[in-house]
Design a protein that fits this description.
By secondary structure, the protein is of the alpha+beta class. It contains five helices and five strands. A hairpin with a 5-residue loop joins strand 1 and strand 2.
Length: about 160
């Protein structure tokens, strides 16, 4: 996965233009960028949960931490079904990507489009983690671009 491809996907995410058709690429970007994220490592440390995502219109996948107590834990994203997930999210690709990028807000009206079985807190943690990873990746790219152009970097 090239960094510029990853950046295109994260820019889609931040501009609320990430859709179900982008999901497979988004998952590959997550695999690529999560393992380069210091923030993700901090959030993943000690996280022993498994979150299954069952999609009505795409291949199911699950997320877990490989070696959660290692010095540098990594998020594993695998296609298929986990044996005993702690949380199962049931939705479709457009709803999932819409939630990830903030285009879709959960409410009573769309509760049939997005269901969580099991530990709902873990589902929330995954969405927060995905946003942190994306934000960090975009910031790293912004800083690299500024450095390349010889501009002073603003910190917030």
């Amino acid at each position: 996965m090239k960094s510029d491809n990853a950046m295109k996907i994260f820019k889609k995410m931040w501009s609320k233009q990430l859709f179900g058709k982008d999901l497979e690429t988004f998952i590959e970007v997550l695999k690529h960028s999560t393992n380069k994220s210091e923030y993700a490592e901090d959030e993943l440390y000690g996280w022993e949960k498994v979150v299954q995502v069952n999609l009505k219109d795409a291949e199911n996948f699950y997320l877990k931490t490989d070696e959660p107590f290692a010095e540098h834990p990594k998020l594993a994203i695998e296609y298929g079904n986990a044996d005993s997930p702690d949380t199962t999210i049931i939705t479709d690709g457009d709803t999932l990507t819409g939630i990830i990028c903030g285009r879709v807000r959960l409410s009573q009206e769309n509760s049939e489009l997005f269901k969580v079985k099991g530990d709902q807190t873990q589902g929330s943690i995954i969405f927060i983690l995905l946003m942190i990873i994306g934000q960090e990746f975009v910031e790293q790219d912004r800083q690299a671009e500024a450095k390349k152009n010889g501009k002073k970097i603003k910190t917030e």
